[in-house]
Design a protein that fits this description.
about 240 residues, alpha/beta, 8-stranded mixed sheet, two-stranded antiparallel sheet, 8 helices
Amino acid sequence: MPRFAAILPAAGSSTRFGGPTNKLLADLAGEPVLARSLRAFLSREDVVQLIVPTSVQRTELVAASPVLAGCLADKRLALCPGGASRAESVRAALGHVRADVEWVAVHDAARPLVSRELIDRVLNLADQHGAAVPAQPVNLTIKEADGPLPAVVWRTVPRHTLWSMQTPQVMRRSALADAYARCPLQLAEVTDDAQLLELAGYPVWLAQGDDHNLKITTAMDLRVATLLLTSPHHS
């Protein structure tokens, strides 16, 4: 499988997490959430760069945890200023990816339980087809309506063709740069990296996601992640 650069956008406001703590610095079984996400990629020899767009200063990260300080000591890791939206943060980080690096993996910094197997699966599918993202089937019944609630239901959306996206999302660096250059939307409207490629006409393939690869958005998500991480069945 190819060597690649990883981008972990970490400039979110954590407003839905609640409390004074940045969710990425919150403790997850003895380590900050961000440290676990970083180590998932820094532990791989095929990662040649790891770029983190963030509003947090390096000194604050170093002071937050010895584990984070150890991650920041890795010469492959660089911080850059994040943007006002996720897509803007990824674009800022993309500008720091070396021109000789063909592949980029964009992973939510708030997904600390990503497994080596999942990264391998998505990277392998992207290598075959140009771009790939992990996905899970939508199991809930989805209604379409004009919110906010209360509101009348327009219709029930057939869910057999619906998939919820995860990360890492892997694509060629050149394709992502081209998609940014030709994006017809405001970047604040772009919800994930695959959407940029879709808008530019690049095919994106879906790989099987992972139930454990949850995104920490709320305090409840952190509790669930702690249970998963400390479960005797977690690998």
